[in-house]
Design a protein that fits this description.
single chain; mainly alpha; 5 domains; ARM-type_fold
Length: 666
């Protein structure tokens, strides 16, 4: 050590000793005086000032000496005056160390700390001070109320992410940098701060995720937590994305997931089993959240459009996600591919279509997968079945049997998903409907009879049973739309098989009667009206109504609780309208009622209630058919004075029902 350095060190220690001596007696004036002497030393001898500052910074690491520094803002004021761009880098570094230590849990000088924070953020621009500044920032904002101010700084977010992406932070400090960034982002989201709305920071975050650091589970866990917060933010979902970014992100997620499955220790460090397992679970959870965030992009069609344009993304979703051996990735792949626009695009490519179908069926057949995964796979199948040209392929692959596996599941949510797939297949697809009506040939044969029989045994106490039964009713109506035609039938075999299916009409009547969802009620009433219009309904239908279920459903429909001016909502709200039943005229289903002509003057007429018109149409057929007249004959007979064995209450109810039906027809 040279003589000058030794002299500076001695002068610095003298100042330091004076400070500690005065601070020890808790003399406010003495503290101010010591700081003034330190400031003068800075102007006269920077070497001595540096040594004094270093000694103070070292001492401030100990809680015994940190309190005097923290309680008196005079030191922070002095250090805030430092200019990292002009001062000696060594002095700035020691000042930053002292600032960080003084700001730990410092709520006494909150406003002053905010001012100091600005200088610290500026110090990040100096490459020589990056590591020491990260450490100071970590102490300033970690577990401190001043975090909100730091979180509001877009410049700080962008700079931190940029330094990480460019690998300008040493490995000794980058874990602290990631943890710092995570805390800043959490606070920014909590405070709804717009600092997250930065395309530059978003691109940098994806670059950070592409770093080859996934062997370090501690680093990876914090990184993915920060990325989940940032990339899942609402502001970023409104930004433009390109295929390269999506590919980089998904590749990083796959690498991170592999890291979670690696049984090795976290970056060579000893970690107990429970901590190691927590890290793995955290990584997996963050990966899944990020993948689900990609789904949210489809709300603005960005992700879907990108996937449509870039075959690499579609292939990655099918091969790397859907066909992964990891259940969570399979589930995420199903969710992503289940997006309507994306699924439609995948169905154009035969290889991807076949692979996606194979992956979804594998999930459905394996009951070891959880409910969410199997439900997602069913959603993917339903979307694959949307294009009519796909249904022949799906039917040939055995999708009906797969649907039955779902319907037989004890979880009614999974059963509901299976019914939705089956209904999608049956819509306007005659081969599927014929397959569902084919008689049982083997013990494991699946047809409409086995499906309706299964649904009739659902636990009515379950909150999901009503939805599942209603979906079964819509399946029956979908088959009826394809098979049953008003009036005479040229090919009676399919129709006869339809009417011979057990539980079929009871299911539709029950949903028409009890469902609280308007478009389901409309669908069921339309289906009943369509079925009634077929001359093949006859005796088979009357047997289904042995317990007057239809009459009770119509009676319930006619109560004041049902509006006479609306017809329900949804695309299934159709009308079979026949003002007068004759032999010459038969009803024809129509999607839309003809527009009514309105006079030039006067109020407009309310739209007709399609559900009510379909019910009236149904009653007209009841009255027209000799077989269907049976309930009315029974009513007349029950109302006769000779029937003394019928109690007065039942006689009154039957009479009221008869009058209700006749009033509706009139």
């Amino acid at each position: 050590m040279s003589g000058c350095d030794e002299e500076a060190r001695v002068d610095g220690l003298i100042i330091l000793n004076d400070y500690f001596r005065i601070a020890g007696v808790d003399d406010e004036d003495g503290l101010i005086g010591a700081c003034a002497a330190l400031k003068q030393l800075r102007q006269e001898n920077q070497g001595a000032y540096l040594h004094a500052l270093k000694q103070i910074a070292d001492a401030s690491r100990e809680e015994l000496w940190r309190d005097p520094f923290s309680e008196h803002g005079i030191f922070l004021q002095e250090l805030h005056a430092l200019d990292p761009q002009k001062d000696n880098p060594d002095i700035s570094a020691q000042a930053l160390r002292l600032i960080g230590n003084c700001c730990i849990d410092n709520d006494e000088n909150r406003e002053l700390v905010k001012l100091v924070l600005r200088s610290v953020i500026e110090a990040l621009e100096q490459s020589a001070l990056v590591d020491i500044t990260i450490g100071a920032l970590y102490n300033i904002v970690f577990d401190n109320d001043n975090l909100a101010y730091a979180a509001a700084s877009l410049r700080l977010h962008e700079r931190l992410i940029s330094l990480l992406a460019e690998k300008k932070i040493s490995k000794d400090i980058d874990c602290e940098a990631i943890e710092l960034l995570r805390n800043l982002l959490e606070k920014a989201v909590e405070a709804d701060i717009s600092a997250l709305d930065s395309r530059k920071a978003r691109d940098g975050m994806i670059s950070v995720m592409s770093m080859d650091r996934f062997g370090d589970k501690l680093f990876t866990s914090d990184l993915l937590t920060a990325a989940t917060i940032y990339l899942g933010s609402k502001a970023l979902r409104n930004q433009e994305w390109n295929p390269e970014l999506i590919i980089s992100l998904m590749t990083a997620l796959l690498n991170a997931y592999d890291c979670a499955d690696d049984e090795g220790p976290a970056d060579g460090r000893e970690v107990d089993y429970e901590s190691e397992q927590e890290l793995r679970d955290s990584i997996r959870e963050s990966c899944e959240k990020l993948i689900i965030s990609l789904i949210r992009f489809s709300t603005t069609d960005q992700f879907s459009k990108i996937a449509e344009q870039d075959e690499r993304i579609r292939g990655m979703l099918v091969t790397d996600f859907l066909n992964s051996k990891k259940e969570a990735l399979k589930r995420c792949g199903c969710f992503l591919l289940g997006n309507t626009a994306l699924a439609d695009e995948v169905t154009i490519h035969m290889a991807q279509k076949t692979t996606a179908l194979k992956g979804a069926r594998e999930i459905i057949r394996n009951k070891s997968y959880d409910r969410e995964t199997r439900h997602a796979a069913a959603g993917l199948l339903r979307h694959l079945a949307r294009p009519a040209e796909n249904r022949d392929l799906l039917l040939a692959s055995g999708i009906i049997t797969d649907c039955q596996r779902l319907i037989d599941d004890d979880d009614l949510q999974v059963a509901f998903a299976g019914l939705r797939v089956m209904r999608q297949m049956a819509q306007n697809h005659l081969p599927t409907c014929q397959r569902l009506l084919a008689p049982s040939s083997t013990i494991d044969w699946v047809n409409l009879a086995t499906v309706t029989e299964r649904c009739s045994r659902f636990d009515v106490e379950s909150p999901f049973a009503t939805n599942a039964v209603a979906e079964c009713a819509r399946l029956v109506v979908a088959v009826a739309r394809c098979i049953v035609k008003p009036g005479p039938c040229e090919d009676a075999s399919d129709v006869q098989q339809f009417f011979e299916t057990g539980h079929l009409l009871n299911t539709v009547i029950g949903s028409a009667r009890y469902s609280e969802i308007p478009f389901i009620k409309s669908d069921c009433w339309f289906g009943l009206a369509l079925i009634a219009s077929c001359e093949k309904s006859g005796e088979v239908m009357s047997q289904a109504f042995a317990a007057n279920q239809l009459i009770e459903a119509i009676e319930k429909f006619s109560t004041p609780a049902v509006s006479d001016t609306g017809g329900g909502t949804g695309s299934t709200n159709e009308l079979l309208l026949l003002p007068e039943v004759t032999e010459e005229r038969q009803p024809v289903p129509s999607q839309v009622l003809p527009a009514q002509a309105h006079p030039a003057q006067g109020p407009s007429q309310p739209p007709p209630n399609k559900d009510r018109e379909n019910v009236l149409f149904l009653i007209q057929h009841v009255l027209k058919s000799k077989v269907w007249m049976r309930p009315f004959v029974v009513l007349d007979y029950a109302n006769s004075p000779q029937r003394v064995d019928i109690d007065e209450g039942k006689r009154t109810r039957l009479t009221d029902t008869r009058n209700t039906l006749l009033n509706l027809v009139e």
